[in-house]
Amino acid sequence: MKKLYLFLFFCITSITYAQNIRLEGVIQDIGKSPLEMANVMAVNQATKAMDGYAITTDKGKYVLNLKPNTAYVIKLSYLGMQNKEVTVTTRSENMVQNITMESGGIELDGVEIVREMPVSIKGDTIVYNADSFKTGEERKLEDVFKKLPGFEVMADGQVQVEGKKVAKLFVNGKPFMEGDTKLGSKNIPSDAVDKIQVMRNFNEVSQMKGLENNNDDIALNIKLKKGKDKFWFGDVSGGLANDKGYIFNPKLFYYSPKTSINSIVNLNTIGEVSLTSADFFRITGGARNTIGRSGTTLNLNRNFFGLSGGDNVAKASDKFGALNLNHSVSKKWTLSGFAAYSATFNQSITNSERGIFEPNTTNIATLENRKNKTDSKNNAFIAKFGSKYKANDNFQLDYDAFFRKNDQQDVDNSQTDFSSMNNGSMVSNSNTVIAFQKQAPVSFNQSLNLFYTQNPKSTWVLEMQHQYEDEDPFYNPQLSVNPYQNSTSQDPNDPSAVFVNENTLNIEQSRFVKTNKLDAKVDYYYQISNKSILNLTAGNTNAFQTYNSSILQILEDNSVNPVEQAAYNNDVRYTFNDVFLGVHYKFIVGKFTFNPGFSIHQYNTNNQQFANPFQLNFTRFLPDMFARWDLKKSENVTYNFTVRNGFNDVNSLVEGNIFTNFNSIARGNAQLENSLVTSHRLNYSKYNLYNFTTIFGNIAYTTTKNPVVNGISFQSIYSTSDRLNLDAENESVNGNLFYSKSFQKYYKATAGINASWNKNFVLNRSVVNGNTQEFIQGIENVTHGYNIALATQFKKYPNIDLGYRINFSEQASTRFTTQTPSVKLNYYFLNGLNINWDYSFNRFKNESTGVANNFKIMTASLNYIKKDSKFEYRIQANNLLDTRSRLNNTFSVNGFNANENIILPRFVTFILKYNI
Q: Is 420 helix (H, G, I), strand (E, B) or coil?
């Protein structure tokens, strides 16, 4: 592998153009003041090609790498200045050329001064000319994103710009699929993209810009090419693969000044995942959700159990369709609609090794080897309706309604073999488990936001959100060995005393959870001066939840044992109310922005179960602070300090026992109190358009006082637990640093570091001679990772992307290391032929035992499209080496897991695409 890397590195460094010379200088106005972020472009007079471009620094400096002894036209543009052209003939040595621009340029909204410039700037918006960065092999929008300086496409499909996650994606000014960057980047064809606009300091409500701390919010707007903005366009692709695999993927888009329609369909059995469960929950309907930043967190614990399997599945079938509509009824009123349906089947096969710690030590008490196969079916539907009415610059009213419906079924087959210490000797056991679970949860959310600017100094904001959820999870584990038989426990609520003593155990558990939550908040902003704003807030959060559960035991003769003990049934009513007032004062001093504030909360909670109500009534003062230091226009440091009250929902309060897994019985605690979470976060961001360098990093320190933990007791792999507040303080430190630089026009280098340290406390219990002992134990976990990559962006030569990533994770005496070198090759040649090859080598090692495992992943594709042809032909091979598994590890406060996941086999697919 090292020899391959050295060879490829030699190829990259050897593919260069003739020795360039540097043309540099200063752009200034007639008063000799430097012009920052002026556009400079060099056009070769002989070839008419753009050989170089630059954006000036805050000192007006520019640098162009140009061919020697060549005649150029240097084109300049700057808002408020007259466009200028200067003729320069380079020599064989570096040159200095200072240029003066004269005032008198005309600013036109939406008109770009220099259309050919790869990068141009207008206020808070950076505009990238997509064609300037394309090399020919791009097929989707994300392929273009990867070529742009400052852009990063993350592993989950989300997009970051200048180190900040993109909040929303627009196409021709209209939200694309609810503004979801993953759906947009993976489905919008690259040949339709003309310009990519990066809108910094983004706020969808123009009245709120400058009032809120949204300086770091970024949105993208994709400008379509002429001819794509007034009629239907898209593509239809279909293909067949080995093992009866197939894919059918039509995409159709329509854009006009008043209406946009986007439709995506993807039916396949070759492992392409359109949306994961995380994606479905991320698409929340576009609510502002500033109420969630009030200082209170009510953790609603959804009982959903997954949607799509991603890469770690052995079999997969995905049927996905989405439709998005935006229509401007008038200049003041816009309607939008979004709907998506997903029907998935996934089979996951996992071989895992699990280590469980002894109480109050990090010695392994139980070592388990488990083979697991799970068949999952999920039908999911989401729909959203939105209305935006902006009567004038002073009034805006938004309404959104969002509906989600799932139908989920899992069948899980497990074979577990485990060894445990018992009275000083090692005892081995096994069990075979078939578990069935299903549910059909429903949720409905709606939000109303009103913005009213009373006068230039006063602005009012009303926000209301309502959330309804109805969940009905059913769980049926069937164990070949009853782990609770022949127990000597004297506890009448011990499982051995509740369930009929048989060799097997068959349980049916039903739960019904309903949630109604209403949030309302009023903000008043008073602009004291151009540099100071007072914000007063009044709000209320009110939630009501019900929880009912029951358990049946199906006996070996198929008769039913209804478990009627109160300790195994739940009938709970829970209410939560938070009334709060807040004050914030935002002011600017030079390059510094400060926004200190506080909120005062009156909390009232009440839960009723077993005819014993429990109430909490108290007042809490919660300070917060935001500060920002703008070193330059594209370089800043921000600091956030928050103190939050964290509350658990009804799932943590129920005192009746619940099977959370075939080997885990848990119950909540009606008398749980809130946790106090204090967080400090420091962010640094720098984006230099002069040398196309991006640097961003952050570090966060969080403490949680009075944390809610599980008090857990293990009997080999079987556990019982309850929830309780612990008189301790959990701590965590997390940080990352990222560097990216585009240089010499054809190269892009990136590097990153991430690290975290966590110390969490757990209450472990141990039964010795019939007596229960409790141990409060602090478990430390350390992870850190490093990655580096170098990519080329040639238009005539093959493009190579070299990467290397290494991750370390450690907890107690257990340490894992994962190394992943990777190589990607893209070559566009013969005016239509495109080769893509992607290879990664993964080495997973348990440093504690010295056991190492390797796996390799390779994909490849060959595309051909004749110039001006509507048809495109493609052969693609996924998992070309037919690798059968992936490896990973996880840690918890009770132990560790090392997992081997069986993955999809090799698929070779022949695809025909027709471009509409």
A: strand
The two tokens of residue 207 are 């009245």
Tokens of 700: 């966060």
Task: Return the C-alpha torsion angle 41, 46, 49, 52, nearest 10.
Answer: -40
Round to the nearest angstrom and report the end-to-end CA distance of the chain: 43
pLDDT tens digits along 506-531: 999 999 999 999 999 999 999 999 99
Locate 707 and state its tokens.
């944390």
How many helices (DSSP H) and strands (DSSP E) are in the chain? Answer: 5, 52
Predicted structure pTM score:
0.88
Q: Which of 514, 487, 475 is nearest to 665 (CA)?
A: 475
| 275 closest CA partner among 321, 240, 235, 314 | 321
Residue 731: predicted pLDDT: 97
* DSSP state letters, 703-730: EEES-EEEEEEEETTEEEEEEEE-SSEE
Residue 215 is predicted with a pLDDT of 67
**Which residue in this structure is represented by tokens 């989401």?**
382
Q: The tokens 């009567």 sit on which residue?
A: 391
- pLDDT tens column, 144-171: 998 888 888 887 778 888 778 898 999 9
Backbone angles phi, psi at 53, to 5 degrees: -150, 160
d(CA 774, CA 513): 32
3-state class percentages of the chain: helix first, strand second, coil last, to nearest 5? 5, 65, 30
Which among 799, 876, 796 is positioned nearest to 147, based on CA atoms?
799
Query: Can you tell me the distance from the alpha carbon of 11 to that of 717, in angstroms, rounded to the nearest whole number?
Result: 54
Q: How far are the Cα atoms of 437, 466, 498 from residue 657, in angstroms, in the given order?
A: 18, 30, 11
**Taking CA 549 as the corner, what is the angle to CA 545 and CA 553, rounded to the nearest 5 degrees?**
170
Instruction: Please give the C-alpha separations between residue 819 and each of 806, 841, 903, in angstroms, as whole numbers.
Output: 4, 8, 19
Q: Going by DSSP bridges, is the β-strand pair 218-224/151-153 parallel, antiparallel, or unpaired? A: unpaired
Band (826; pLDDT cuts 50, 70, 90): very high
487 — pLDDT class (breaks 50, 70, 90): confident
Residues 121 and 689 sit within 8 Å (Cβ to Cβ): yes
